[in-house]
Amino acid sequence: MIIPGKHRCVLFDVDGTIAETEGQAHLPAFNHALEEAGLPWRWTHADYKRLLKTAGGFERLLRYAEETGNDAGALRHLLAGVHKNKNKHFAEILASGAVKPRAGFAELIHSLTRHDIRWAVVTTTSRSNWDALWNYSLSPLELPAPATIVVGDDVQAKKPDPEAYLLALQRLSLSAHDCYVIEDSRNGLLAAGGAGLPVAIVRSEFFADESFEGAAVVVDELTELVV
């Protein structure tokens, strides 16, 4: 668990961890963008659950193209446009106020602040998606800003590769022993573990039934991690 006096920063994943953005915003935004592009693909909840095994929205589009027998390379430019448009729709959904942070998130951040523990963000989502979540869902809670933010745009390899977490430690000038991670997926657990970081898992809509062997603790809600 998070230990005041030992841990100096808690690193948060975003989608599914801070807010249930996958089902509430990403999935409908993808389907809206696919329809606008004239593609016949419509992702069900089950489709998206499978595709989430691949980190990165653009990478999921390429994977689905291959799964459906299409030439992903030939569609690359079109799918890049779909992904860009999807991010626009994602921001619109968040601007509507439809997505709230998970129960206990604000309480946890305020608790960390009282114990002089900073928080940071390590995600494979895009900078624009993080900005939308911060501006529309988190900033109104009057939380302190994250000590650093690492997004998918900042790294070459996405989770489960540890690059994003290693970059965060570098930016924070902290060691793995100084930090604690909160994730919701096995890919996230592997990425943080690969950087030598202890990990708490908070179960989420799409990843609740994954194997979390090696996690320091597995909880149902962030309220269980308040220090």
Structure, described:
By secondary structure, the protein is α/β, with parallel strands linked by helices. The chain has two domains: 9-19 and 101-225, HAD superfamily/HAD-like (Rossmann fold, 3-Layer(aba) Sandwich); 22-95, Orthogonal Bundle (DNA polymerase, domain 1), CATH 1.10.150. Helices cover 42% and strands 10% of the residues. It has eight helices and six strands. Strands 3-2-1-4-5-6 form a six-stranded parallel beta sheet, with helices on both faces. Helix 1 crosses helix 4, helix 3 packs across helix 4 (76-95) and helix 4 packs parallel to helix 6 (127-138).
Compact summary:
With 227 residues, the protein is an alpha/beta fold.
Which regions have little confidence, pLDDT < 50, spanning 5+ residues? none
Label the structural class.
Answer: alpha/beta
CATH class of the largest domain: Alpha Beta
Distance between the termini: 9 Å
Approximate shape: globular
> What are the secondary-structure elements, in order, as H or E?
EHHHHHEHEHEHEE
CATH topology of the largest domain: Rossmann fold
Number of strands: 6
Q: Nearest-angstrom radius of gyration?
A: 17 Å
Summarize the amount of helix as a percent range: 40-55%
CATH level-4 homologous superfamily of the largest domain: HAD superfamily/HAD-like
Number of alpha- plus pi-helical segments: 8
Q: How large is the share of residues in beta strands?
A: 5-15%
Q: In CATH terms, what is the architecture of the largest domain?
A: 3-Layer(aba) Sandwich
Average residue-wise pLDDT: 97
Strand order of the largest sheet: 3-2-1-4-5-6
- Overall tally of structural domains: 2
What profile does the largest beta sheet have? 6 strands, parallel
